[in-house]
Amino acid sequence: MNYIGSKHSIIDFIEESIIDFAGNDNKVFCDIFAGTGVVGKRFKKLGFDVLANDTQFYSFVLNKHYLENNSIPSFSGLKLIGISNPFIHLNVLDNYRGFIYHNYTLEGTLGSKYERCYYSSENAIKIDSIRDCIEKWYKKEMITKYEYYYLLACLLEAADKVANTASVYEAFLKSMKKSAEKTMELKPLDIITNKNSKCKVYIEDSNELIKEIKGDILYLDPPYNSRKYATNYHILETIAYGDYPEISGKAGIRISQFKSKYNKKNEVAKEFEDLIRNANFKYIFLSYNDEGIMDFKEIEEIMKKYGEYKRYECNHKRYKASKNKEVEKKTTIEYLHALKKEC
Ligand SMILES: C[S@@+](CC[C@H](N)C(=O)[O-])C[C@H]1O[C@@H](n2cnc3c(N)ncnc32)[C@H](O)[C@@H]1O
User: Is 237 in the pocket of ligand 1 (CB under 6 A)?
Assistant: First the structure.
């Protein structure tokens, strides 16, 4: 998934820097701004017990699947009713016009105050039908909790691929792009099998969760600026919940949204220091780039108060949607601030 601030392209740099600073003999890794789960996944593969957290439910779903699932689900409950492959069954469903169709397609919103074009009618009906079917299977106990999150994670990834956006859901494109015209296909996602890893996923404000958990390595990847994840990924949130939220404006954004203090210039430093102070971890790492609302000197000053500090950095090519929706390339410096906590 193309996610703002994703660490997909710099995951090797993150792993190498963390192992360089903290060594090889740690067991519990914690990723409390987990997003798509790229970092937690890597540390699960390395054999760590991983705790992951994010305030967004789509992130919870993705991390539940990648971290807590350890084997290919058997779908034995579905087999009992003659469904041997849920993907074949789900991919042909086209019987339900639900919330996504009625609010995020041109056909479904035609003549209303805001006409929206996030999905083709065909794909929106597929999303609604698949989401509805997964929920019914789960409520009727025909699939397990693990199978439920697995299928939901597959649906999120598939729906994101056919969204008619420049990558985030703050706005839709005026005309349908090629990838949005393709028929959505639900595909099985990778399963990370590490039966020795004990992983757990939370959905909480990190500054609250930090008071309840402990471990060896704490990895922090909060928002760097005022761009709100709840707004930028609001449709994924609705698909994940499968609910009927109150929405507003041209983009049809969910009204009640979590407001992160990490998005606010006048609150972020205090919030960050509270997190470091309350953290019951020996090693703490913070990813932040050179365009963030805290500068690296401010971060260094805060972290140095709590122990031994070091900074790693690498260049990162990021893609930025410009005003005319063309994609432009830009290089930023990604910092990894490291702290060995002493007090
Ligand atoms: C930079 S992204 C993380 C990207 C992630 N490392 C990846 O590679 O996909 C920041 C994440 O922090 C989450 N977030 C923002 N404020 C939060 C808070 N107070 N507590 C927990 N999560 C928060 C956002 O929902 C978002 O998913």
Answer: no
Here the tokens at position 111 are 């003549």
Q: Please spell the DSSP secondary structure of 301-324, one letter per residue.
A: HHHHTTEEEEEEEEEEEEEEE-TT
Distance 340 CA to ligand 1 centre (A): 23
Nearest to 124 by CA among 104, 152, 95: 104
Tens of pLDDT along 26-56?
Answer: 999 999 999 999 999 999 999 999 999 999 9
Give the pLDDT confidence score for residue 194 in this predicted structure: 84
Question: What's residue 326's pLDDT?
Answer: 46
Q: Residue 319: which pLDDT band, with cuts at 50, 70 and 90?
A: low
User: Distance between CA 191 and CA 74 in Å, rounded?
Assistant: 13
Any bridge partners for residue 218, and if so which? Answer: 30, 284
Ligand 1 center to 213 CA (angstroms): 18
Distance 35 CA to ligand 1 centre (A): 5
Q: Is the dihedral of CA 167, 169, 175, 177 positive or negative?
A: positive
Closest C-alpha to 232, from 5, 18, 51: 5
What is the Å distance from ligand 1's center to 311 Cα? 21
Residue ranges in 64-172 assigned as alpha helix (H): 76-80, 86-91, 99-104, 106-109, 121-139, 145-161
CA of 145 to the centre of ligand 1 (A): 24
The model carries a pTM of: 0.95
Residue 297 CA, distance from chain mean position: 28
Q: How many CB atoms sit inside 10 A of residue 277's CB?
A: 13
Q: Say yes or no: CB of residue 66 within 6 Å of ligand 1.
A: no
**Sign of CA pseudo-dihedral 293, 267, 61, 18:** positive
Establish whether residue 63 lines the binding site of ligand 1, counting it when its CB lies within 6 angstroms of any ligand atom: no
Residue 39, ligand 1, Cβ within 6 A: yes
Q: Which atom from ligand 1 is nearest to the alpha carbon of 261? A: 19
